[in-house]
UniProtKB/TrEMBL annotation:
GO biological process entries: tryptophanyl-tRNA aminoacylation
Domain of life: Bacteria
CDD domains for the chain: TrpRS_core (cd00806)
Subunit annotation: Homodimer.
UniProt name for this protein: Tryptophan--tRNA ligase
Native source species: Aliarcobacter cibarius
Residues annotated as binding L-tryptophan: D131
Family, as annotated: Belongs to the class-I aminoacyl-tRNA synthetase family.
């Protein structure tokens, strides 16, 4: 079973990204053959800044490696190292109706938010279909916003298979993890870099302390009992504490004498403990850019081997001899 996932190269990663997506992806290395790539071509639809794209792509690579992406076990590469995807993108474009693309929610949302309505942005679901179909992916783990793109991929593959009367492209299935609740931010809204309410994973102690201390609470005093249900500190603590630790925290909430500042410091300490081993690994990769480049190249070689065979088969079928 092949699992494939593309990751947008956003530089900073917050605990919402981690518990919502990254952790699951790393764990999926035990469920099947994982193919994961940094979606650098996709990023061009919104990023028009060389330094920004380079830096963020690199950061994405070291974050994933630090968090447990295993380049031996899985295939991990950066999208633009495997150019076969662009050829498939063009071939598939001719099996994609305008109507299908016009119905894409993400295009409508992104242009409504001010992104330039470029051809790249409009045709991006076809590139995503090429990413998926080039590797005969069976399972594509995605967030809710990406389900439609996997469905479009199935439509495109069906239309292609029908045109050439052969089941040459494998129809993928989107896997949405209903279990993963939305992680809430320091203000109680969905944690998102756009809302400035994040607790970042890899950051300075000073910045992390600032983020944790900024968690919004009510204004109960030290000598008043407090409610842990719906408290933003408690909600975030649930991600880092076991049941006994949470029971203990509940007791501290209802017993007068401590304030929210104390609970925040306990949470801060737990977060630091949790990410410490990853931070050390990340520092190693951050100090060895050559090693990171080698790992990505090694992944690209593995990916290219599969991609070049598949594209050859497809060229053959369509008459590109
Ligand atoms: P952001 O909203 O900060 O820009 P992205 O849109 O880049 O985050 O999300 C990257 C991945 O992390 C997606 O798979 C998304 O589903 C997941 N994710 C982002 N924020 C959260 C959150 N608050 N809770 C759970 N998952 C999240
Ligand atoms: N479009 C996805 C996102 O914005 C990233 C992505 C690109 C992807 N290609 C993919 C995800 C292929 C899964 C499979 O998050």
């Amino acid at each position: 079973m092949r699992i494939l996932s593309g990751i947008q190269p956003s530089g900073t990663i917050h605990i919402g990204n981690y518990f919502g997506m990254v952790k699951k992806m790393i764990e999926s290395q035990n469920d099947g053959e994982l193919f994961a790539f940094i979606a650098s071509y996709h990023a061009l639809t919104s990023v028009k800044d060389k330094e920004f794209l380079e830096k963020n792509s690199y950061e994405a690579a070291i974050n994933f490696l630090a968090l447990g992406m295993d380049p031996e076990k899985s295939t991990f590469w950066i999208q633009h190292d495997v150019k076969e995807v662009l050829e498939l993108y063009w071939i598939l474009s001719n099996h994609t109706s305008m109507g299908l693309l016009e119905r894409a929610h993400s295009y409508k949302d992104k242009t409504a938010r001010g992104l330039v309505a470029s051809h790249g942005l409009f045709s991006y679901p076809v590139l995503m279909a090429a990413d998926i179909l080039l590797f005969d992916s069976n399972i594509v783990p995605v967030g809710k916003d990406q389900i439609q793109h996997v469905e479009m991929t199935r439509d495109i593959a069906t239309s292609f298979n029908h045109a050439y009367k052969k089941e040459i492209l494998t129809l993928p299935v989107a896997k949405v993890d209903e279990e993963v609740a939305t992680v809430l931010g320091t203000d109680g809204a969905k944690m998102s870099k756009s809302y400035n309410n994040t607790i970042d994973m890899f950051t300075t102690s000073k910045q992390r302390k600032k983020q944790v201390m900024s968690i919004v609470t009510d204004s109960k005093e030290l000598d008043e009992p407090k409610e842990w249900e719906n408290c933003n500190i408690y909600n975030i603590s649930k991600l880092f504490m076991n049941e006994d630790e949470l029971k203990d925290l509940q007791k501290r909430y209802i017993t007068p004498g401590e304030g929210y500042g104390h609970f925040k410091l306990t949470l801060l300490e737990k977060i630091e403990q949790y990410f410490k081993p990853y931070e050390e690994k990340r520092e190693y990769f951050a100090a060895n850019p050559k090693k990171v480049r080698e790992i990505l190249e090694f992944g690209a070689q593995k990916a290219r081997k599969i991609a070049s065979e598949k594209i050859k088969e497809i060229r053959d079928i369509v008459g590109l001899i």
